[in-house]
Write a structure and sequence with these properties.
The chain has 262 residues and is mainly alpha-helical. Helices cover 62% and strands 5% of the residues. The protein contains nine helices and three strands.
Length: 262
C-alpha cells in the first residue's frame, strides 16, 4: 500500500513523539536516582569526605554508563543514515626532464602537490599588511551597505583579535626547510605545474628557456610588443566606466573597475 506524503509525515511524527516520550522517561528515572544519591550525600555523609567521594563516583559512573548506551545508539543511527562514500586518493605524477636525480624524500614532498602546506611559521609582516587591507575594505563595505555600526564594531574587534591569534599558528613540520635547502642546492631547476592538472614537471633552466623561446617564436600565434599596453588600456577603460557609473549599482561598478596590482 502506497502512503501519501501527509500519511508518511504523520507516521514519522508518531514514531518521533514515541521516541521522545521514552527518552523523557529514562531521563526521569536517572533524575530520581541522582536525587536519591544526592540526598544521601548531603544528609548522611556530609561530614565524611571519604563516603562523599564514594557517592560522587557512583553518580558519575551511573551517568557515564547511561550516556554510553545513548551514545552507542546515536552512533549506530548516524552510521545507517550517512552514505558510504569513498574518495580516491589524488595521484600526482612527477616528470623529471632534468639531468639531476630527485631524492626519495624530495619526491615524497613534491608528490603532495605544489599547493599543499608543508609547515613553517607565519609571516607577521604579511599578516599585518593583509589585515590592514581587509579591515579597510570592510570599513568601506559596511559604510556602503549601511551595516549596523555597533555590530560592525564588535565584528571588527573580534576579527582583529583572531588575526592576532593567527600569528601564533605554526607547524613544526620541517619538510619546507628540507625542500628549500634542496632547491637552494639546485638553483638551475625549474618546477612547473602541468596545465589543467596537479602533476609536476621539472626542467633545468636552459631547457625551460629554450622551450619558451620556441613557443613564443611562432609569429602566427604570438606578436612581440614594443611596450606594455596595460597602463593605457586601464586608463581608457576607467574613462569609459566613468560615463556609465550613474547607470549601474556600486557593486557592479566595483566589479568592472580594473585592479592595477593584478
Amino acid at each position: 500500500m502506497q502512503l501519501s506524503k501527509t500519511e508518511i509525515k504523520s507516521k514519522r511524527l508518531i514514531t518521533l513523539n514515541s521516541a521522545i516520550a521514552d527518552h523523557r522517561a529514562k531521563l526521569h528515572q536517572l533524575y530520581d536516582k541522582a536525587l536519591k544519591s544526592l540526598a544521601q550525600l548531603i544528609h548522611i555523609d556530609y561530614l565524611f569526605p571519604s563516603r562523599r567521594k564514594v557517592h560522587t563516583n557512583f553518580i558519575f559512573k551511573n551517568i557515564l554508563r547511561t550516556e554510553r548506551q545513548a551514545d552507542l545508539a546515536r552512533e549506530a543511527k548516524f552510521k545507517r543514515l550517512l552514505p558510504k562514500l569513498t574518495y580516491p586518493e589524488t595521484s600526482i605524477k612527477i616528470h623529471n626532464f632534468s639531468n639531476i636525480s630527485i631524492p626519495e624524500q624530495i619526491h615524497s614532498i613534491l608528490s603532495r602537490g605544489l599547493n599543499s602546506g608543508i609547515g613553517g611559521h607565519p609571516d607577521n609582516h604579511k599578516i599585518l599588511s593583509e589585515s590592514e587591507k581587509l579591515i579597510k575594505n570592510l570599513d568601506k563595505h559596511a559604510e556602503n551597505s549601511n551595516v549596523n555600526r555597533l555590530k560592525f564594531f564588535e565584528l571588527k574587534n573580534d576579527l582583529q583579535h583572531q588575526l592576532y591569534l593567527l600569528r601564533g599558528c605554526y607547524n613544526n613540520d620541517n619538510k619546507g626547510q628540507i625542500l628549500n635547502k634542496w632547491l637552494n642546492e639546485n638553483p638551475n631547476l625549474v618546477i612547473c605545474k602541468v596545465d589543467k592538472s596537479k602533476n609536476i614537471v621539472i626542467y633545468d633552466d636552459i631547457t625551460y628557456n629554450n622551450k619558451l623561446e620556441k613557443e613564443f617564436s611562432n609569429l602566427k600565434q604570438f606578436r612581440r610588443l614594443g611596450r606594455n599596453p596595460l597602463k593605457t588600456n586601464q586608463r581608457d577603460l576607467n574613462e569609459i566606466l566613468k560615463d556609465y557609473k550613474r547607470y549601474v549599482s556600486k557593486k557592479t561598478f566595483k566589479s568592472l573597475t580594473p585592479i592595477p596590482s593584478l
